[in-house]
């Protein structure tokens, strides 16, 4: 897919709704929203608010049997992006992104071989290059390793390398840092920031952390109970949140930043 002009409407949601198979109520919607080409959007909300459902609907990665209502158009491209080629997706748990019985080399090279038509040898070289780009040490050795042989933070770097292997124009990262400790979190966020900026990719970053959202995104969409309750520039939402959901997420973050009482901090 040729990357559309920056700022053009990339994805247009109109009365978009999702109902999972057998569910009594829709998990999402109706949602009206536009995503601009090249923008950096954070989708935030509390657990169960529908963030992943929205992200998966955009990616075309909803589970079988999920029913979509309303419309989801791709005006600039004229067709939906192909996951893996036009759109990369990184999950919260690298176990969902990575296959435990394939080597890291095999899975990072797979996207390049499949979508770019590279030979096995060229795809392997490309995979080693990608591992370097996500700042993993000793790519030559890592190519032959299995996911369980590296740390959680390293696995997330591998998942990011695999997601961008075919050079997609869009990257969706769904809670990719929530299983990691704070310093590793910051490094992964910095990596996503640099990679997507360098490549002019559209970034959709799902999180329940307002500070991470504001750090990475230009615009924030706030979800609550399956609906979009507020959307706007990151700075505006941080300084003047309107919805109770956005206020709650901000307060939650201030609480986290409060230093623990001396008694609690003692070992
Ligand atoms: N595969 C599924 N089948 C049925 N219901 C689902 C499925 N996935 C999610 N749901 C339901 O849809 C609603 C929205 O869930 P979703 O995972 O989108 O929320 P979320 O904001 O991503 O939450 P979290 O922060 O916990 O990841 C919830 O009520 C959830 O139970
Ligand atoms: Ni989720």
UniProtKB/TrEMBL annotation:
Keyword annotations: ATP-binding, Cell membrane, Ion transport, Membrane, Nucleotide-binding, Translocase, Transport
Ranges for domain ABC transporter: 13-250
Pfam families xref list: ABC_tran
Primary location: membrane
Protein topology in the membrane: Peripheral membrane protein
Reactions listed under catalytic activity: Ni(2+)(out) + ATP + H2O = Ni(2+)(in) + ADP + phosphate + H(+)
Enzyme Commission number, as recorded: 7.2.2.11
Compartments where located: Cell inner membrane
InterPro entries given in the database record: AAA+_ATPase, ABC_Ni/Peptide_Import, ABC_transporter-like_ATP-bd, ABC_transporter-like_CS, P-loop_NTPase
Family, as annotated: Belongs to the ABC transporter superfamily.
Protein name: Nickel import system ATP-binding protein NikD
């Amino acid at each position: 897919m040729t990357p559309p002009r920056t700022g053009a409407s990339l994805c247009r949601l109109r009365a978009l709704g999702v109902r999972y198979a057998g569910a009594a109520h829709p998990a999402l919607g109706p949602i009206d929203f536009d995503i601009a080409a090249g923008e950096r959007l954070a989708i935030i909300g509390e657990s169960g608010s529908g963030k992943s459902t929205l992200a998966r609907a955009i990616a075309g990665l909803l589970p079988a049997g999920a029913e979509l209502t309303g419309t989801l158009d791709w005006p600039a491209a004229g067709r939906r992006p192909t996951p893996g080629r036009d759109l990369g997706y990184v999950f919260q748990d690298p176990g969902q992104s990575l296959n435990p019985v394939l080597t890291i080399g095999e899975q990072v090279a797979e996207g390049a071989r499949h979508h770019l038509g590279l030979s096995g040898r060229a795809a392997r070289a490309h995979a080693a290059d990608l591992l370097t780009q996500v700042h993993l040490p000793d790519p030559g050795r890592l190519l032959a390793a299995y996911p369980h042989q590296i740390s959680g933070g390293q696995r997330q770097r591998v998942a990011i390398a695999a997601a961008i292997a075919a050079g997609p124009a869009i990257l969706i990262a769904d809670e990719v840092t929530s299983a990691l400790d704070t310093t590793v979190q910051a490094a992964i966020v910095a990596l996503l920031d640099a990679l997507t900026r360098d490549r002019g990719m559209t970034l959709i970053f799902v999180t329940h952390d307002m500070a991470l959202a504001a750090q990475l995104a230009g615009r924030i969409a706030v979800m609550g109970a399956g609906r979009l309750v507020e959307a706007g520039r990151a700075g505006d939402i941080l300084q003047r949140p309107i919805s109770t959901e956005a206020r709650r997420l901000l307060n939650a973050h201030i609480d986290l930043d409060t230093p623990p009482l001396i008694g609690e901090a003692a070992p």
